[in-house]
């Protein structure tokens, strides 16, 4: 299975959810050779409930993933924590939405939940918890207490960071952190726009029906990360188009 563990289906937190944009993103993912994604929309995005509510109406699902003509969309979200990091949480949809409801009082920057508290919500519910872009200057995780960092199921080798920090430079930061703590490293594109889709992804043997199965395969060392030779161009193009589209949306909203 070729899968991306960090994937957005909205252009930004402030924009509305659009099935047209969603379908464009998924069409590109399939064209790039992916068979699955983990949907990690921001937990405090505008109208978070609308994302899963719309997908419930539009696509068949089984509480673990939505099926779009054989393409799997595993359920997840990206959570901001008080320490400043971004955390990718994925697992059964009912447990995910239960956690999201418990985070309702923590959606503003001044009230973000602590990482330890987030683990206490996620671990009993069997969620996979990935530390997003641990060395991003604006939202780092590497500085957090090592005992907390060891609780992650994986760290995110992030497409945007590979571009901004440098491919070899970012690898030289993230992989040693994972090795030191005994935490695997997986790839996530962090795509919000179609041009960034496929800049990085993961290859796992066989097929998977649940996030628990994916987590077990990652922990067993079965995950191979792939970095596109055109990563820099993809991320630059996506950033430029995203800026233009956001301006267009903002003008139309006035």
Question: Which key phrases capture this entry?
Answer:
single chain; 254 residues; alpha/beta; 10-stranded mixed β-sheet; 9 helices; 10 strands
Q: Overview of this structure, please?
A:
It contains nine helices and ten strands. It starts with a strand and ends with a helix. With 254 residues, it is α/β, with parallel strands linked by helices.
Overview in brief:
This protein is of the alpha/beta class and 254 residues long. It has helices spanning 19-31, 48-58, 93-102, 115-122, 146-149, 159-164, 167-181, 211-219, 231-253, and strands at 2-7, 36-39, 65-68, 71-80, 86-90, 128-131, 154-158, 185-188, 200-203, 224-227.
Protein topology:
Blueprint: E1 2-7, H1 19-31, E2 36-39, H2 48-58, E3 65-68, E4 71-80, E5 86-90, H3 93-102, H4 115-122, E6 128-131, H5 146-149, E7 154-158, H6 159-164, H7 167-181, E8 185-188, E9 200-203, H8 211-219, E10 224-227, H9 231-253
Parallel strand pairs: 1-2, 2-4, 6-7, 7-8
Antiparallel strand pairs: 1-9, 3-4, 4-5, 5-6, 9-10
> Helix proportion of residues, in percent?
25-40%
Secondary structural class? alpha/beta
Q: Please, what is the average pLDDT?
A: 95
Distance between the termini: 43 Å
Rg value: 17 Å
Q: Describe the global form.
A: globular
| Poorly predicted parts | none
- Put simply, the count of helices is 9
Task: Give me the count of strands.
Answer: 10
User: How much of the sequence is in beta strands?
Assistant: 15-25%
SSE succession: EHEHEEEHHEHEHHEEHEH
Main pleated-sheet profile = 10 strands, mixed
